[in-house]
């Protein structure tokens, strides 16, 4: 159940059909999102054959082609814009992402329009906003990008790098953010959206604020047919299959799995077995004192 305080930016469809009775989507008019981008050079059509290899053989289960989409090139490393002063020209919709994207324009010394690039939009991004990408210690506003050593402790950040100048890898989904917990001379302790705490170098960059479309988790499709458009096929239980198709299959009626432990379709243990062989403990926090 969605509370009234959680309905900001959501659109509740009228129950005219069974598919729209429980459907909840994003209200793009509320966020003033442009559905058709003004810049076509950074968006191109990508031929997608999801679940199939170059021979046309199925290699991934529960994937399908879905609907046609235009891929938007997102600049996660903020190059060659870094360091520059930019202005947000528009905030638009991206079918490949749960969040919105912002089109940035470089402002040079003569204040003329220069290069264009797309970045992830924050919850306060709007057309005409000035965004600063800098190395220096300045007043960091929402949407600005700088090094972690210049953010005050307790700041909300997103699009966080793991390796200096390696590109944003953390807190990129809709409504996600990371919290800057503490800082030392060389490293910063950051709490990720997964509640994991990591030690990251002060030279890594991040964006101030929270990713846009924070109420995306309350959206409902309303019917299973929309999952097909999102390149997702239905998931069938193993017990509903034949014995030749799954280790849990076969039997009469609602029979059990017939095994001591659940198995994958390929006969391997599905629960209680560690699958990670190696973890980089360099960035994981064990004991850290500032």
From TrEMBL:
The protein's superkingdom reads Eukaryota
An example molecular function term from Gene Ontology annotations:
RNA binding
PROSITE patterns in the record? RIBOSOMAL_L2
Q: Where is the Large ribosomal subunit protein uL2 RNA-binding domain?
A: 51-133
Keyword vocabulary terms for this entry: Chloroplast, Plastid, Ribonucleoprotein, Ribosomal protein
The UniProt entry, under InterPro entries, shows: NA-bd_OB-fold, Rib_uL2_dom2, Ribosomal_uL2, Ribosomal_uL2_bac/org-type, Ribosomal_uL2_C, Ribosomal_uL2_CS, Ribosomal_uL2_dom3, Ribosomal_uL2_RNA-bd_dom
Q: Name one GO cellular component term.
A: mitochondrial large ribosomal subunit
From the UniProt record, give one GO term of the biological process aspect: mitochondrial translation
List where this protein forms a coiled coil. Answer: none
Domain Large ribosomal subunit protein uL2 C-terminal span(s) in chain numbering: 140-269
Q: Which SMART domains match?
A: Ribosomal_L2, Ribosomal_L2_C
- Family per record: Belongs to the universal ribosomal protein uL2 family.
What protein name is recorded for this chain?
Answer: Ribosomal protein L2
Identify the species of origin: Chromera velia
Q: Which gene encodes it?
A: rpl2
């Amino acid at each position: 159940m969605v509370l009234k305080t959680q309905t900001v930016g959501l659109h509740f469809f009228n129950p005219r059909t069974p598919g729209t009775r429980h459907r909840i989507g994003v209200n793009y008019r509320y966020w003033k999102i442009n559905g058709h981008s003004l810049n076509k050079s950074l968006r191109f059509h990508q031929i997608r054959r999801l679940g199939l290899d170059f021979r046309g053989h199925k290699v991934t289960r529960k994937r399908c082609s879905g609907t046609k989409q235009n891929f938007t090139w997102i600049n996660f490393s903020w190059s060659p814009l870094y360091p520059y002063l930019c202005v947000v020209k528009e905030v638009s919709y991206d079918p490949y992402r749960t969040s919105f994207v912002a089109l940035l324009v470089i402002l040079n010394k003569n204040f003329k329009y220069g290069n264009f690039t797309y970045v992830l939009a924050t919850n306060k991004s709007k057309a005409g906003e000035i965004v600063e990408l800098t190395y220096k210690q300045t007043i960091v506003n929402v949407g600005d990008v700088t090094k972690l050593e210049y953010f005050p402790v307790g700041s909300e950040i997103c699009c966080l790098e793991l390796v200096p100048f390696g590109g944003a890898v953390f807190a990129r989904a809709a409504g996600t953010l990371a919290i800057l917990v503490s800082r030392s001379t060389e490293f910063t302790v950051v709490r990720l959206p997964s509640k994991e705490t990591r030690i990251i170098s002060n030279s890594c960059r991040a964006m101030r604020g929270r990713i846009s479309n924070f109420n995306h988790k309350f959206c409902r499709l309303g019917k299973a047919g929309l999952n097909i458009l999102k390149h997702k096929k239905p998931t069938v239980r193993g017990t509903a299959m034949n014995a030749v198709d799954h280790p849990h299959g076969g039997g009469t009626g609602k029979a059990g799995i017939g095994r001591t432990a659940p198995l994958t379709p390929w006969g391997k243990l599905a629960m209680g077995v560690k699958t990670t062989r190696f973890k980089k403990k360099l960035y994981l926090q064990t004991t850290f004192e500032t």
